[in-house]
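debug: dumping io for the single-chain case to check the tokenizer round-trip. Nothing else runs in this session.
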Amino acid sequence: SVFFNTILASLAMWAGDGAVAALYFANRMVQLPLALFGVASAQASLPTMAEQAARQDGQALRTTLQTVLRMVAFVTIPAAVGLVALAWPIVQACFERGAFDRQSTVMTAQALGLLAVGLLGFSMSKVLTGAFYALKDTAMPVRLAAEAFAVNVVLAAALIRPLGLGGLALAPSLASSLTAWRLLRTLER
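debug: decoded output
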């Protein structure tokens, strides 16, 4: 999805000059809380969930998964709100100097705010995928990831004209949120 959206961002007539760099920098900023909380929680909980699945202790697995998802939500929702609300000053403080001018800050802050909307979805998808792996089901997360890519492609292509760079940032956020919801519903079944 990142590769596809970068290709679309290179279409300056729709996304604007500097869209590739803005999308890249915004993505890097979202990766920090995602790695610290989403990926770390998924990695830390995987051995416990795998052990519980091997023992066929569904109740313990469900409890662990619910606890981890609550913890991820507890941390990533405020992080996402903070990134949305403070996108401008964060980008300005981190990047605005030299060739990275005020317009670059505007573009990157817009992309950061819209990518941050999907932070909970990105994080939950990591944890839920780990639960599928613990249950030795690697096919379903791959199928749902393929669906997410298709949704991202459709949304990015549809949203680039009305929203420009914002559409390229919003598309993976919506696709990841949909994927997290689908993973959760499938796992419940």
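debug: round-trip ok. The CA atoms of residues 83 and 90 lie 8 Å apart.
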